[in-house]
Amino acid sequence: MSDETSDRRTGLRSTLASVGSERGRFAIGNLLSTNTETTGMTANSGSEAAETTAAERTTDVGADSGAEMSAADRPLGSPQVDNAIIESRDLDVFYGDTQALQGINMDIPEKQVTALIGPSGCGKSTFLRSINRMNDLIDVARVEGELHFHGKNIYDEDVDPVALRRKIGMVFQKPNPFPKSIFDNVAYGLRVQGKDDDIEEQVYTALERAALLDEVEDQLDESGLDLSGGQQQRLCIARAIATDPEVILMDEPASALDPVATSKIEDLVEELAQEYTVAIVTHNMQQAARISDKTAVFLTGGNLVEFDDTNRIFENPESDRVEDYITGKFG
Amino acid sequence: MSTDTDGEFDFGGSAIERKRLYGKVFLGLCVSAAMVGIVALIALLADVIYESWGWLTWEFLTYPPSQVADHFVPENYGDLDTGPAGMYPAIVGSIYLIVLTAIFTLFLGVGAAIYLEEYAPDTRLTRFIEANITNLAGVPSIVYGLLGLAMFVRALQTGASLIAGALTLTLLILPIVIVSSQESLRAVPDSMRQASYGTGATKWQTIRNVVLPEAVPGIMTGIILSLSRAIGETAPILMVGAAVSMFTPPDLTSPTGAFSAMPMMIFEWASQPDAAFQHIAAAGIVVLLTILLLMNAAAVLIRNKYDRRA
């Protein structure tokens, strides 16, 4: 895409945005379905198509769901969604004097996969960890702004981070099973949360849903550390879903795994999105394109640059920098 | 660098040879430094075992001591009205002493370490406390003995008792136990803690279910090694007034009763003029060293048994 076109589009977008926000939710649905086609044409037919896309965008912007989003730090794309379960509003995170996130505004839709991509050190993991307040564990971390879960700001004083983490589970970059048996690993969350009625059944269900049961059924008493890396990661996923949270955060869950194990995790993520909301940080652009419904692109300095439907981000991003990043020109 | 070496390679390298020689000399120095300690230890052990040979009998372990050297001689056992002499009360006293010390140390040392490592905020005060704990590890044991005498024996009116001795030894090894426990806690990977918090565990649940089980082998090793230092300490129990001629083992039901301990007994025998007592002292040393080695072996076994990350 030429710089000229993109400049013009940005210009159009801001002009149209200022015109006002009509409530056009139902219309968007229709427009979105033809979106891929329109976007596909863009590259060929030049400015005419670009105008159309921009017009759609504007209607999209109008689709306010819950909390207000300030205009200043609003990323490109359509950062607000109808069925948001998590809404980040002007979220800043500081580590000591360093600001790791700058005014993040975006939504995470319910029962979909939202991918967070961007180069190293761009703040995507920090954002993920601020969703279940894991940053609280770091002494020097400080959060400003708001992050709503079901409309409630989780940084309000009356929110207990432990209760929050029981609703928002997490899977980490490196598989980190406890040095306990496979059964006890999965049962851990159930036990600490006092959900230990029919613990056996719940453990089996979780292992089944994590696509691990067939492989480990005969060795539930053996240490979780004896499993392969991919199995360990699925064990960690089983541990996270055993307590039936609403949201599962995944911090590069496949980055330490081989391609076969990675594809199993990817299948699993898509599967999980039928019942859970999944937010996944990944370095792997193809992975984000394959498994996610929405994609947020963070670029250097903790800025969220663009948030939109995954196919739009990958086929026709608004920002040149995002396009350069996705096509591998930098990052 | 010379410019006319095209196509030639100097294999002679007398400079390299000389550097190699330095290396060999250095190696020799290091080896001899390592040997001094080992040779001294072996010589000491050999001497003690040689001295005690023939004096170390089962009766020596099971009978109370005597002022008369002849009572310790195995050939005389049958002819004595008093029965054979040995160090039974001191052995039992030392074991009681170490068990009590272990209990006190476990709670105080591990508790302090958990607080400092898991709970205490990283403030200047915390760092000050930590620095001073490290410094306390270097305080001479006789100073702890004086502290025990003033604090427990006098101020708390415990008398020259097992309790006073055990508390004094606890103070002595506490800094070492705290520091080694802190290191074990610090060695628990953060990813384990995060995994636990991530599943909705509270801080206490995380410490109880994840951090402590992981750290226990290291903590136990540290405690046992410290206890094996404590069991051989003479100065502190000398100061709190361990008895030298106890003819019965200390009574656990009277916490202010008198007690004796092995190092005290050995110290007493070694200062006797009668030459026979040198052999008796040697026999006592062998018993003490055996118990020490058993404790250290237990520490190694525990570490190997629970070290699952190897």
Task: Characterize the structure shown.
The complex is a heterodimer of chains A (331) and B (310). By secondary structure, chain A is an alpha/beta fold. Chain A has 2 domains: 3-61, no CATH class; 109-139 and 154-326, P-loop containing nucleotide triphosphate hydrolases (Rossmann fold). Chain A is 43% helix and 21% strand. Chain A has 14 helices and 11 strands. In chain A, β10 (294-299) and β11 form a beta hairpin. In chain A, α1 packs parallel to α4 (47-61) and α7 (182-192) crosses α8. The relative contact order of chain A is 0.15. Residues 1-65 of chain A have low confidence and may be disordered. With 310 residues, chain B is an all-alpha fold. Chain B folds into 2 domains: 15-79, no CATH class; 88-306, Orthogonal Bundle (MetI-like fold). Chain B is built from 11 helices and no strands. Chain B has helices spanning 14-52, 58-62, 88-119, 124-136, 141-155, 162-186, 190-198, 203-230, 235-240, 262-270, 276-306. In chain B, α3 runs antiparallel to α8, α3 packs across α10 (262-270) and α5 (141-155) crosses α6. The radius of gyration of chain B is 26 Å and the shape is flat. Chain B starts with 13 loop residues before the first helix and ends with a helix.
In brief:
The complex is a heterodimer of chains A (331) and B (310). Chain A has helices at 3-19, 25-33, 35-45, 47-61, 124-131, 161-167, 182-192, 199-209, 213-216, 229-242, 259-272, 285-291, 310-315, 320-326, and strands spanning 76-77, 84-95, 98-109, 113-117, 141-149, 152-153, 168-171, 247-251, 277-281, 294-299, 303-309. Chain A has 331 residues and is α/β, with parallel strands linked by helices.
Written as H for each helix and E for each strand, in order along the chain, the element string of chain A is: HHHHEEEEHEEHEHHHHEHEHEEHH
Number of strands of chain A: 11
CATH superfamily of the largest domain in chain A: P-loop containing nucleotide triphosphate hydrolases
Mean pLDDT of chain B: 87
Structural class of chain B: mainly alpha
Please name the two chains that share the biggest interface, counting residues whose Cβ lies under 8 Å from a Cβ on the partner chain.
Answer: A-B, 28 and 22 residues
Widest β-sheet, arrangement of strands of chain A: 1-11-10-4-9-8-7
Average pLDDT for all residues of chain A: 80
Second rung of CATH, namely the architecture of the largest domain in chain B: Orthogonal Bundle
Count of extended strands of chain B: 0
Which CATH class of the largest domain in chain A is shown? Alpha Beta
What proportion of the residues of chain A is helical, as a percent range? Answer: 40-55%
pLDDT < 50 stretches of chain A: 1-65
Helices of chain A, by number, come to 14
Q: How many domain units of chain A?
A: 2
Low-confidence stretches of chain B: none
Helicity range of chain B: 55-70%
- What CATH calls the topology of the largest domain in chain B is MetI-like fold
Question: What structural class do the secondary elements of chain A suggest?
Answer: alpha/beta
Could you give a short account of the major beta sheet of chain A? 7 strands, mixed
